[in-house]
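Problem 12. The chain below contains 303 residues. Write out its predicted structure in C-alpha cell notation.
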Amino acid sequence: MRVSSIGTMVALLAALVSSQRLTKPALQPNLDNLKQGFINNLKPVASTRTPFQAGYIPSDCKKIAQREGFNPADIQSLNIKYTDCSAPWVFCYHKSSNGPLNDLVDRFSRLPVHTRQFSRHIVSLPASSGHAYNDGGNLVFFGDTLSNINVHIHEAAHSLDLIGAFYPDKPLSSSAKWINEYNQDSAVPDPYAQTNQVENVAQNAVVTTYERNVPGGFFGLNPNANKIFHQYATVDTEQREADPARLLVPGGTCTGRLANSSPVPISGSATVQAAAAPNVALPAGLATIKGAVFNTNDTCHFG
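Solution.
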C-alpha cells in the first residue's frame, strides 16, 4: 500500500510539473518561418478516399462534434487510405469547414508515417479563429488550421508524447529526464511552448522535425538555437530510438495503428439502424497501438 501511495504521489507531482507555465524566454515570436520549409521538403503521400458507411459516423467524431455544438449530420466521414499504410484513417470533415478537404488530406499525409500512425481520427470543424487540440489521439482542427502543416505536426506530437511513443510507456513531458534536460537550457522555442511542458515538447517536436528534414535545419535558421539544444536533442534521441525508430523522419510503412472508435448511427432513425455498421477493425498483421486518455483542449489552442 505504501509503495502504491508513493507511486501515486510521484505521478501527481509529475503531472503538476508538466502543467505549470514555463518562465524561460521564447527563442522566436512563433514558428511560422518553418512552414514553407516543411511544405518544400515533407512530400505528400498519395491517397484514395471512399465514403464511410452511409448513416454512420465514428463514435469519437460524433462525441467531439456534439461537445463542440455541431450537428453530427453535418459531418462527412471518409476513409482516407495512404499508400504507406494498409489501413485507412477515418476523416470527419464538417461541411462548413474553413478550408478544403484536399488541404486536410494533403497536410496530414506529409507527416512521417510513423508519426501518423499514433493518430486516430482527423476532425475538421468550422470556427471564426483557428485553433486545434488532441483528444486521445483524435486531431481536432478548427478554422484554417486544417491547412497549417505546423499545427498538424504539433498536434500529432502530443500523441507521440502522451501515448508513450517518444518515451516508452509514459509521457516524455512529465519525465524526470525531460525536466533535467529542460533545466540545462536558457529558452524555449516560442511563446506557445511557455504554456506548459506538454506544449513545450510538442513545439520542440516541430523544431526537431524541421532540423531532421529541411536542408540547413533549425540550427542553421536561428543563430541562437543552442539555447534550446538539450530539449531538441532529447526529442531527437527519443524519436530515433523509438519503436518504430525515426518517428519524425519520412519513410517505411505503418507498423501499427490506434484502434478506430466504434461506428455509431448519425441519428436514431429506424432506417439507419437497419443498415449494417461498417467493419473498422485493423487488418491482420497491423498491430494495435495502446492508446491513452488525455485531452489538450484546455491548454492547446495552437493555430
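Discussion. The beta strands are 47-51, 56-58, 75-82, 89-94, 122-125, 131-135, 138-142, 256-258, 263-265, 287-289. Students who got a different answer should revisit the alignment rule from Section 12.3.
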